[in-house]
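Hey, resending since the last one bounced:
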Amino acid sequence: MTREARYKGVIDWFQVNMPVAESELHYRNPYQLLVAVILSAQCTDKRVNMVTPALFERFPTPEAMAEVEPEEIYEYIKSISYPNNKAKNLSGMARKLVSEFGGIVPSDLDQLQTLPGVGRKTANVVGAVIFDKHVMPVDTHVFRVSARIGLSVGAKTPLQTEQQLTRYIPEELLPTAHHWLILHGRYVCLARKPKCDVCGLTPWCAYFQSTTRKNAKK
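The structure tokens again:
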């Protein structure tokens, strides 16, 4: 199977079976999404959503968060992974957002990445979800699922995966495709034991085809 055929099959299946694919993080504005994505690093969206209501009630704006020390932010996020570092990043992010961007989350991806705690993936998520940028954020789910299906080949880093995905996926579909792969990895293509028996992508999946061939030889 050619890569073009694999991509076409996967995209066509998702468009039919998952026409609506959105972030599972709870947010009401760009500031809230930015905070939630920073908190979601190496942490589940479910856990983040448990923490953010109280956090946003206390710090409804970047200005409110910028006024306090990281120690106060920590008290609201201490059940999150790496709370000390994330509290410092949130504090620094809010202060820079206020001092350099007037409290407005910038739409420019390079400017976003100047904020503490915001790397390429986080900037791409905010860009894709809020500003409909034609980018492909690559987290652990996207990295794993892309390799397993065969959408990425030999990619050693998230950037290499991103480059391959953006080459083959039509740019207008990239923001949605990001969520397709995340949700598929979260609920079907699990890290330790993928649910191939209920997966609709098996006709195009390199992992499933390889496994099937191995089992047939036994």
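The CA atoms of residues 126 and 218 lie 47 Å apart.

Sorry for the duplicate.
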